[in-house]
Amino acid sequence: MKKMRKCALCGKYTLEDSHCNAPTKSPHPAKFSIDDKHAKYRRMAKER
Ligand SMILES: [Zn+2]
Predict the structure, then answer these.
(1) What pLDDT sits at residue 27?
(2) In the predicted model, what is the mean pLDDT of residues 18-30?
(3) 11 — alpha (psi -120 to 50), left (phi > 0) or beta?
(4) Distance 36 CA to ligand 1 centre (A)
């Protein structure tokens, strides 16, 4: 089963393990998405 990956260099989505001669990364790491949500709410609270 292939997962969607994203090239860190050109930003294109690909199914390949590498792109632009560089290894691709998973575009949506679960850990980071949770952190991002907290960061967003913190920013909104600060701007108010
Ligand atoms: Zn690329």
Answers:
(1) 82
(2) 86
(3) left
(4) 24
Separation between Cα atoms, residue 1 and residue 7, nearest integer Å: 19
Q: Look-up: residue for tokens 């090239």?
A: 7
CA 20 / ligand 1 centre spacing (Å)? 4
For residue 23, report the distance from its CA to the centre of ligand 1, in Å: 9
Distance 38 CA to ligand 1 centre (A): 30
CA distance 42 to 33: 14
pLDDT above 90: residue 44? no
Question: What is the pLDDT at residue 5?
Answer: 93
